[in-house]
Design brief:
elongated, 3 domains, three-stranded antiparallel sheet, DNA polymerase, domain 1, mainly alpha, 6 strands, 13 helices, hpI Integrase, Chain A
Length: 333
């Protein structure tokens, strides 16, 4: 039972209540009885929610700076360097904009203001990456019992114009590219990227022990997200891999900068229009884009790419309207 009272010689109302068997007293910081009564009712609701297991009464009032320090320690230990950099940029940028708030005071508008501010400085795709990392960070704050709910659950990403849609190779352009590559080992590397959609470093870090030729499965242990993933590969790639010499523990013994420059060199030889806008990473986009255009759902593509969530794969959604229409045409009652 909670009740209001005033100390002798003071106009300020105080509230007395029992919380977890202990008598507590708290100032309402007002001499207005109506405001004090509202404070009392709010406190009674919070105590009731605590009794039902829903309260934030016993949650620590953690400030943003302390949370950022804890979270970035976690991020640095568990995530790839680039992801850690985005976490750092997003969280510190958010704090610089809004100050050292209590986590419980952070709300959706703070996130929307951050999005608008960042849009003035960086591209929408970069802003969206930071928004995703903010959401993930505050979801972790919920799991750590710092806050009751994620204030950014409904924070929307920026609209991405068509110019920001990932560029990929058509099937004809893929054939042109493979035709001009003279180095068979490097051609095999390019084919591996095209048939698995893996990242440059994931293929370079791969060992033969992580390729199961009998089952047609490859396991990437060293990934951007820090989580391993296993995906299937087809007979075409199996044939390519069987033709490689196994003189090393790794199928592809190249340096990162070597494969990047080599790819650009061969790409220029193809005569493909706007080839300068294509990168080695475009092979990953090529893999995903052709899967979507062939009718594979975004969730499956997301898992094959190793995305943390399907929202990251939605950049390919524009490629599936015909498939979606065909799916609806099959609906009959």
């Amino acid at each position: 039972m909670a009740a209001l009272y005033q100390k002798l010689g003071s106009d300020i109302f105080y509230v007395t209540y029992v919380f977890h068997g202990k008598r507590c007293r708290k100032s309402t910081k007002t001499s207005d009885r109506k405001l004090a009564e509202l404070f009392l009712k709010d406190l009674e609701v919070r105590i009731a929610r605590d009794n039902l297991g829903f309260s934030e009464m016993n949650r620590k009032e953690v400030r943003l700076s302390a949370f950022i320090k804890d979270y970035l320690n976690h991020s640095e230990a568990e995530k790839a360097d680039k992801t850690f950099e985005i976490d750092t940029r997003a969280l510190k940028g958010f704090r610089d904009l809004h100050g050292d708030l209590h986590l419980s005071k952070v709300n959706l508008k703070h996130g929307e203001d951050f999005r608008i501010k960042r849009m003035q400085k960086v591209k929408p795709v970069s802003v969206n990456m930071e928004i995703r990392q903010l959401k993930a960070a505050f979801e972790k704050a919920v799991k750590w019992s710092y806050i009751e709910r994620n204030p950014f659950k409904d924070l929307k990403q920026c609209k991405v114009k068509n110019s920001n849609i990932p560029k990929f190779l058509s099937k004809g352009e893929v054939r042109k590219l493979l035709d001009v590559i003279e180095d068979e080992q490097f051609k095999a590397y390019v084919q591996f990227l095209l048939y698995t959609g893996c990242r440059r470093s994931e293929a370079l870090n791969l060992t033969w022990q992580e390729i199961d030729m009998d089952k047609g499965l490859v396991t990437f242990q060293v990934t951007k997200t820090g989580k391993s993933r296993t995906i299937p590969f087809n007979e075409t790639l199996k044939t390519v891999l069987n033709q490689l010499d196994r003189i090393s523990n790794r199928p592809f013994n190249f340096r990162k900068d070597f494969v990047t420059h080599k790819f650009k060199k061969y790409l220029r030889r193809t005569g493909i229009n706007n080839c300068e806008s294509l990168k080695l990473h475009s092979l990953r986009h090529t893999f995903a884009s052709h899967l979507v255009m062939s009718g594979v759902d975004l969730l499956t593509v997301s898992k094959l790419l190793g995305h943390c969530n399907v929202s990251m794969t939605e950049i390919y959604a524009h490629l599936m309207p015909d498939h979606m229409k065909a799916s609806i045409e099959r609906l009959h009652y």
